[in-house]
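Marked as duplicate of an earlier ticket. Keeping the data here for the record.
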Amino acid sequence: MIHINYTELIRTFWITLIKPFWWFWVIIFGTPVVISIAKSYISKWLDKRWLKKHKRLIEWKTMNPKKFERIVAIIFEGLGYKTKVVGGSGDKGIDVIAHKDGKRFFIQCKRKDQVPPKEVREFAGSIRDLNKEKGEKGFFVTTGEFTEEGKAFAKDNPIEIELINGFGLEKLAKEIEE
C-alpha cells in the first residue's frame, strides 16, 4: 500500500510551482477580475455621461432593454438609492434592486408603449416571492403608459407598487441634474 504524505506534497508544490511564480498566478487569475471591474465602472461612467445628454423619452424608446435597465438604475441612484442591475434571463421579474434608508426596493423596467395588466400582476407576484420584510415596495418603470386595469391593480394591491410611466421617468431624470 502506498502512503502519501499530503503535507509534504502540498509543501513541495508550493515551493516549486506557486511561490517562485507568484507574479504569473497573479496575472493569470487577477487580470480577468481587474478587467471585469474596470469594464463595469467604465460602462456605468459612459451610461451616466450618455444620460446627461439624452434625457428625452423618445431616445429611451429606441435603446436596447439592457441599457434601459442601466439608465433606470442610474436615475434611481441620482434619487439617493444604491442600485444593482440584476435583469436578464432568470431575473424572476426583477431588473434592478435598490436600497435606501435600510429598505429594499424592486424595479421592473419595460420599453413598451402600453404595459398590460398581466405584467403588473406578474411583477407583484415576483415581489411577493422575494419580499421578506415590511417596507419593501416595487417600482414598475416603462417608456409608455399603463392600462387603467393595471393602474387599478397596483393601487388596490397589498404590495405597494409605484407605476412610473415614460413622462414620469423623464421628469425624474431631469430632477437629478448634476
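See parent ticket for discussion. The chain has seven helices and seven strands.
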